[in-house]
Each structure stands twice: as C-alpha cells, then as structure tokens.
Design goal:
The chain is an alpha/beta fold and about 270 residues long. The chain has helices at about 15-25, 65-70, 80-100, 100-130, 140-165, 180-195, 225-230, 260-270; strands spanning about 170-175, 200-205, 220, 235-240, 250-255. Helix 6 links the parallel strand 1 and strand 2 (about 200-205). Helix 3 (about 80-100) packs antiparallel against helix 4 (about 100-130) and helix 5 (about 140-165) packs across helix 8 (about 260-270). The N and C termini lie far apart (about 110 Å).
Length: about 270
C-alpha cells in the first residue's frame, strides 16, 4: 500500500531485525543444537527455536518438551543437571495435570525419579563424609559436651556424697509441719529417705496433728517452734548442728516449702562445705 493511501491513523508493527535476518538466512531452519556424542559437554546448552531465539521453559508445550529435554546437557552419569531439573520438573507436572496422557504422566514421573535419585545420592555421600570428618559431625559435637556434663555431674555427686557422709554424724534434720497440710504429708517420703540414709530426724507439729509415718527419733507438738526458728510457711526443713545445745553450733532454715530429695541434698552439701 502506498504511503499516500494510509492516512494519519495508520499504524504498522515494526519488523524486528532478528526476524528479518532469520528470514533471509538459509540456515534459519536449524532447530536444536545437539550434544556431543562422546565428549561430556560442560558448556550450558541453550535450546533454540527455528528463528534462532532461546526457548523459555514457560513457552514449551507437550509436543516440544521431549525435544527440549533431549537438547539439555547431561552429567557424566547420564542424568540431567540439577539446575535444569529445577526448571523443567514443574513444567512437566503442569503438562501432565492439564493433559494426563500416558506420555505426559510417564515423563513427569521419570523426571521426578531422576531428581529423587540425585537427592538420595547426595544424602548418602553427605552422611559418609560427615562420619569420616569429625569437624562436620554435629552429633559428635553434641556428644562430647554431653559426656563432659555427665562426668561433671558424677564428680559433683561424689563430692556431695562425701559431704553428706560427714554431716550425718553432726547435723540433725528438723522437719516442721502441720498435720493437716497436704504438702507436709507429701514431704514425709523425702525425709524418710534421708532417715534411711543415716540422718537423725526430729519432727515438730505446729497444729498438734502428729504424722506418725515420719521416721523421726522424736516427733512432738511445739507451736512456738515457728517463731523461734523464723519459719514463715510449712513444710519447713532445718539443719541443726548437734553442738548448738552448748552455743557453739548453728541452725539453718533450708526451706520454707516443699523440696525434692536432690534439692535437699544440694542444700545440705552447701551447708557442709
């Protein structure tokens, strides 16, 4: 059409240079560059369409997917590279879901299995290397501090045991309670264990209700004991030096409340140091 016939409103799409070159070139019908038959290719192969432009994965349809996959480089083991699998696996799934033909579904599961095999191979080799490299073994790094902590705990137990053995001969445990208090009754089992281990125990009831299951050398009603020892709540446990009677000993309120056996022993050990 002549320019004089087009008018002011005429618009024509510009022709891209690469399209012109492709139309004029006799070699423009080359489809996809083939891989070297024997030598492994290290350079990335970029598939091209008939115009010589790079193909985007998003533009691939089920008819061109297999050709696209064939054009991709391979590892020495014959599998696709992880980078390429990451791109084409979602596209293959999309094609299989849109058209679940045997070819599309088989293609997707083949690519998925290839991806899983690569992941399993990586995981297997990683575990092997970690076991052979102590600096990479996180479990080994966790086990060493754990062993050190266990050794420190055993050492502390031995030291506490030694201190408690010495205290048994010179400290009396005074258990101050109210017979109607459920926590006081609960604490009796811990005090009885200490009595079985050789400690002398004295029980003092503030409300006149005697706990007869307490293994005590003496178990009395003495309401003034709370004010005398400065006890604010029960059950309370005191460590009284057996020499306090002549004024040279001491008495220590170890707890105003319920303690477990481990805590009682740790507090006794602190007194004995």
């Amino acid at each position: 059409m002549a320019d004089s016939e087009r008018g002011w409103f005429w618009y024509e799409e510009p022709v891209e240079e690469e399209q012109i070159e492709a139309a004029e070139s006799p070699e423009s019908t080359a489809v996809i560059r083939e891989k070297a038959p024997e030598e492994h290719q290290t350079d990335t192969v970029v598939p091209q369409d008939f115009t010589g432009r790079s193909i985007k994965v998003a533009d691939i349809d089920e008819n061109s997917m297999d050709r696209y996959i064939e054009s991709l480089p391979r590892t020495p083991g014959g599998t696709l590279f992880a980078k390429d699998l990451k791109e084409i696996l979602p596209k293959s799934l999309e094609l299989a879901v849109d058209n679940p033909s045997p070819v599309n579904v088989l293609r997707y599961f083949t690519l998925q299995r290839m991806t899983m095999n690569k992941s399993e191979n990586f995981a297997t080799e990683s575990r092997r290397l970690v076991m052979l490299s102590p600096e990479l073994d996180e479990m080994g790094g966790a086990v060493r501090p754990l062993k050190l902590r266990e050794e420190a705990e055993r050492k502390e137990e031995r030291e506490v045991g030694s201190v408690l053995a010495d205290l048994r001969n010179r400290v009396i445990l005074v258990y101050v309670y109210q017979g109607g208090c459920p926590y006081c009754r609960q604490g009796v089992s811990e005090i009885n264990i200490l009595a079985d281990e050789g400690f002398s125990v004295v029980g003092i009831s503030l409300d006149g209700i005697i706990l007869n299951d307490l293994k005590a050398v003496s178990n009395i009603h003495e309401p003034s004991a709370a004010s005398y020892y400065g006890i604010s709540s029960v059950p309370a446990l005191l460590a009284v030096d057996s020499d306090e009677r002549d004024g040279s000993g001491y008495s220590v309120v170890m707890s105003n409340g319920l303690l477990n056996l481990s805590e009682i022993k740790l507090r006794l050990a602190e007194i004995g140091k």
